[in-house]
Amino acid sequence: MVGLVIVSHSHALAEGVRELAQQIGQGKVAVATAGGLDEHTLGTNPERILKAIREVRSPGGVIVLMDLGSAILSAEMALEWLSDQERAGVLLCEAPLVEGAVAAAALIAAGASLQEASEEARAALTAKQRQLRAEAGDGWKGGPPEPRVAPGHQPQRADQVRSGQAVVPNALGLHARPAAQLVQAASRFESQVRVRNATRDTDFVNARSLNAVALLEARQGDELVIEAVGPDAAHAVEALVALVSSGFGEPAALPEAPPEDAAPGLPEGRARRVFGGIPASPGVALGPAVYLRAERPAIRRVLAEGRAEDELERLDKARQTVARDIEEVARSVRMGLSAYLAEIFEVQRALLNDPELLERVRRAIVEERLTAEAAWDRELTLVVNRYREAASPVLQARGVDVEDVRDRVLGALVGTEQVRAPQLPQAGVLVVYELTPSLAAQLDREQVQAICTGAGGATSHAVILARSMNIPTVVGLGQGILTVAEGTLLGVDARRGVVAVEPDDAARAFLAREREAWLARRRQEEAERYLPAFTQDGRRIEVAANAGSLADARTAQVLGAEGIGLLRTELLFLGRSEPPTEDEQAALYRAIVEAVAPNSVIIRTLDVGGDKPPAYLDLGQEANPFLGLRGVRVSLAYPDLFRTQLRAILRVARAGPVRIMFPMVATEQELEAGLEMLQAARDELRGAGMPEAADAPVQVGIMVEVPSAAVMADRLARTAEFFSIGTNDLTQYVMAAERGNRRVAGLSDPLQPAVLRVMAEVIEAGHNAGRPVGVCGEMAGDVEAVPILLGLGLG
Ligand code: PEP
Ligand code: MG
Question: Are the CB atoms for 771 and 722 separated by under 8 Å?
Answer without folding.
Answer: yes
